[in-house]
Write a structure and sequence with these properties.
Layout (H helix, E strand, L loop, with lengths): L1 E19 L5 E19 L4 E6 L11 H15 L8 E7 L10 H16 L6 H11 L3 H6 L3 E4 L4 E4 L7 E6 L6 H8 L7 H9 L15 E2 L2 H7 L1 H14 L4 E2 L6 E5 L2 H15 L5 E6 L4
Parallel strand pairs: 1-8, 3-4
Antiparallel strand pairs: 1-2, 2-4, 2-5, 5-6, 7-10, 7-11, 9-10
Helix pairs in contact: 1-2, 2-3, 5-7, 7-8, 8-9
């Protein structure tokens, strides 16, 4: 018996780095939302143990894979609580559509989807808060994918506040074909100019829940762009080419290197997408036409 689930990508509509903790992790404030672009995960509950396979050569299939680690943590939590589970193991196949190493949270999304599916399969053994705690041990973005809709993330990404009434937007997304090292980008950031605290707080407060529709277009920003551009100049040049062809701001998601532009109307987004495909295709670049999700 198999079960198939979509595992959505995310965008950081803005990201400000606010400090560095003694343990080396960076604190941030970011507005995050899921988009329609998704991996497809196929679950099989026959047999014992955990097995993960993927159709992308850059994704590991051993116990370093986040989907594997999520399943292992779920079963370990059941064992620690001496809970008998109705499944002896799980095999997970990942059809990879989300660019790997592109700042779109594909691995974290996969991990969250595994936790949700296993919990449902086992009769909702754990509450959302318990799943969020498991997610925190797997990666900073995993709790967001468990949380639900758009959220303002603080701390290292684990403190989440739900954002209501985010205006719908269509998205033209570019994967420049560069696998970005998150650790290197954050490390390089320490030597870059950063946003001023007051600007950071002001930008965040503009999207706090107020019962009014939120238009994020004027707040698009990413403090990590300077570091990523310094390490990977191709991302900067692609950003500049996109902005010229689309005639609108283009921002980077997460630690990079995926780049995106927002559109109010699907027709305009489609025209922009087609323009990029015509003029920038090749060289490892891939373009996607997607949209923000409010749920």
């Amino acid at each position: 018996m198999t079960q198939t689930r979509e595992s959505r990508a995310k965008l950081n509509l803005f990201l400000h780095v606010t400090g560095r903790r003694p343990d080396g992790f960076h604190e941030l404030i970011s507005l995050m939302t899921k988009i329609t672009l998704a991996d497809e995960l196929v679950f099989s509950f026959q047999g014992k143990g955990i097995q993960v396979t993927c159709d992308h050569p850059g994704v590991p299939e051993d116990d370093s894979n986040l989907a594997y680690r999520a399943a292992n943590r779920f079963f370990s939590a059941c064992h620690q609580k001496k809970i008998a589970v109705p499944v002896a193991g799980v095999a997970i196949h990942i059809h990879k559509n989300i660019p790997v190493g592109g700042g779109l949270g594909g691995g974290s999304s996969n991990a969250a989807t595994v936790l949700e599916v296993l919990n449902t399969r086992c009769g909702d053994l754990f509450s959302l808060e318990q799943l969020l705690e498991m997610g925190r041990h797997l990666g900073a973005d995993v709790p967001f994918f468990l949380f639900g809709g758009p959220a303002l993330a603080r701390g290292i990404g684990e403190k989440l506040t739900r954002i209501q009434n985010l205006k719908p937007r269509h998205v033209v997304l570019c994967d420049p074909g560069i696998h970005v090292s998150t650790a290197e980008v954050f490390g390089r950031h320490d030597f870059c100019l950063t946003s001023q605290g007051k600007y950071t707080i002001k930008s965040a407060s503009n999207v706090l829940p107020r019962g009014q529709p939120v238009d994020i277009g004027s707040c698009m920003h990413n403090d990590l762009e300077a570091a990523a551009f310094g390490l990977y100049p191709e991302i900067r040049s692609t950003r500049d080419e996109m902005a010229h062809l689309l005639q609108r701001p283009v921002a980077m998601s997460g630690s990079g290197g995926s780049l995106f532009a927002l559109f109010s109307h699907e027709k305009d987004a489609k025209q922009g997408y087609e323009r990029l495909c015509k003029h920038l295709a090749g060289g490892g670049k891939h373009f996607f036409l997607t949209a923000l999700l409010n749920g």
